Amino acid sequence: MRVTAPDGSCDTHLHVYDSRFPVAPRSVLRPPDASVDDYRRFRRQLGTTRAVVVQPTTYGTDNRCQLEAVEALGSDARAVVVVDESVTDSELERLTAAGARGARFHLFPDGAVPETALATVAARVQPFGWHVQLQLDGRELGDRLPTLVALRTTLVVDHVGLFLPPVAPGHPSFRALQTMVDGGRCWVKLSAPYLSSATGPPGYPDVGVLARALIDQAPERMVWASNWPHPGVTDPPGGAELLRLLADWAGDDAIIRRILVDNPADLYGF
Q: Rounded distance, CA 156 to CA 135, Å?
């Protein structure tokens, strides 16, 4: 079965790689080049027209590669960038004009900005209408919950929480994510089940049960992403397969449209 993406559908998480740009010293992930033209060919499988280009760890706080991609993709593209505590208001204004709508924190050892900067950066970007995007091991959410709920900024959590490995829906760490979602300012990307699943393809059922629980809880704050070009993954599923997974998790055309079209339009300002 082929799932057709509705008009205005958005892929909310992709990366562009270009060896013209220097690799950050702490980065451990150095994928081969993946260009905007390569992505355009990929998204023809999807039928999506909007895109959010996300700064990978490969380039640290040097956002030029992703901003070039946003410029090339045009008005139907946005960016999530990486900035640290030294960022100025004038730089935030420039980044906003270039399409940035979020500041990413990669809370793993190769992240460019330490967790200690999270509250400061969140407070700095909030007046510009940005959110904070978090990638972390979801099993840590219980310990991090007081810090995260204290932030006044909208939060976006990557990859169905990225529980390594997945937990049962009643697990305290998943309940912590649900508490964040219940607060009304937390969104979740339904993406990249292959990064965490222990049960594996084609259905990734251990991730799917979490995705369904989140959709049932707050379909208005779920978005979808391909995670193209699937950095570090040797045999990723195709775009059509990932859309079929979303259809299986959502189970309803109106909810699929909400996740693919309406929710990202609200979150990223399309």
A: 9
